[in-house]
Write a structure and sequence with these properties.
Strand content: 15-25%
Distance between the termini: 63 Å
Oligomer: single chain
Radius of gyration: 23 Å
Structural class: alpha/beta
Order of helices and strands: HHHEHHEHHEEHEEHEEEEHEEEEH
Helix content: 25-40%
Number of helices: 11
């Protein structure tokens, strides 16, 4: 029997098994025939995985309108992996090298041309993400959004100050999707840049909190965060949310990063990291009371100076040590409590914003 003579429900399973990556390797594989295309396009665009380069190529293609229409009609999972500016060869290298050879002179690289190219790249990325946000809001099937934004790494200047490259307003636009079920944000490589008129007045945490009524899974790591990410904006005692993972540790966000920073509190409210940690734990407990079937609620930090990952299970009160290769939700070795974590922070006089 010809493949195309199979019932529609079987053809859908076949296309799903083949997977979206098969079609994205060669879009010509979509065009076997009209009937084939009807099933293949859904499989191709239901799971959209984009980097900043592939997003730019998508939006600059000749038939961008048709491509965006296909994506909008099929999109179920949006997966963004952003690494910041990578085209370092387009910027002139430093004129001088230090005699000790330990590091290049960053100031000789960070000139007018370099700053202009980085600013232009950031604008292009923001415009592309803004277009993607429009598509996401119009995609009735979209249920999962994952965004990972790591730090920029210059191959010859590993100790350049971190540069922020994501817009707060654009990320908020991406999070305005209705009926979202899974949200995973790992934005440890950049703070979110507010508009000039909104500096200090807006943050993304309230946008995340607004999604709690539809989410099933929430996974977050951000350089700036507050308890609003877990605060219900409307009373609901039967949330379908079952998994919450909040990582406050930035210790392993990049192999080029040597500082052991924690997330900082949104805005100018004082209290430091220990107050932030306590507030998020308290709000997590309050949120658990509204969850119909909570499975995992974990708050992750790290100890000093050993940099051991620690996971607090909010549902049981247990504190666990996680090995380096463990996932955030894994069960590690149980320890008595995490009081030594707080004493280590206080004894070391550690600054929670060492690179801010």
């Amino acid at each position: 029997m010809s493949l195309l003579r199979l019932p529609p429900e079987i053809l859908i399973q076949v296309m799903d098994h083949v997977g979206s990556s098969y079609f994205r390797e060669d879009l010509g594989r979509l065009t076997v025939c009209k009937r084939w295309f009807g099933f293949a396009r859904t499989a191709c665009f239901k799971d959209l995985q984009l980097s900043q380069k592939t997003l730019r190529h998508l939006l600059s293609s000749r038939d961008v309108g048709r491509s965006l229409l296909l994506i909008k009609d099929s999109l179920e999972i949006l997966d963004l992996e952003l690494k910041g500016f990578e085209d370092w060869s387009s910027i002139p290298e430093p004129q001088s090298y230090p005699q000790n050879g330990n590091a290049l002179d960053a100031s000789s690289w960070d000139g007018d041309l370099g700053r202009a190219l980085l600013a232009a790249w950031t604008t292009v990325l923001d415009n592309g993400l803004a277009q993607l946000a429009i598509i996401a809001r119009e995609s009735r099937k979209l249920r999962i959004i994952r965004i990972q934004a790591s730090s920029e790494n210059h191959p010859l200047l590993p100790h350049l100050p971190r540069r922020d490259y994501l817009s707060l307003s654009t990320i908020r636009a991406l999070l305005s999707v209705k009926n979202l079920m899974v949200l995973e944000l790992d934005l440890c490589g950049t703070l979110l840049i507010p508009r000039q008129e909104h500096r200090g007045g807006f943050h993304v945490c309230t946008s995340i909190g607004a999604l709690l009524t539809t989410l099933r899974r929430l996974r977050l790591r951000m350089r700036s965060i507050c308890a609003d990410v877990l605060r219900l904006q409307h009373h609901d005692t039967s949330l379908r949310l079952s998994e919450v993972l909040i990582n406050l540790s930035l210790s392993n966000e990049s192999p080029m990063t040597t500082s052991a920073a924690y997330s900082t509190r949104c805005g100018s409210t004082g209290g430091g990291f220990l107050k932030l940690k306590a507030d998020i734990e308290d709000q997590a407990e309050a949120l658990a009371a509204h969850m119909a079937s909570p499975k995992i609620i974990r708050i992750l930090t790290h100890s000093l100076p050993q940099l051991k990952m620690r996971s607090l299970d909010v549902l049981t009160g247990k504190c666990m040590i996680l090995a380096d290769d463990m996932a955030w939700e894994d069960d590690g070795k149980t320890v008595e409590d995490d009081s030594d974590l707080e004493s280590e922070i206080l004894d070391d006089g550690f600054s929670t914003s060492s690179d801010e």
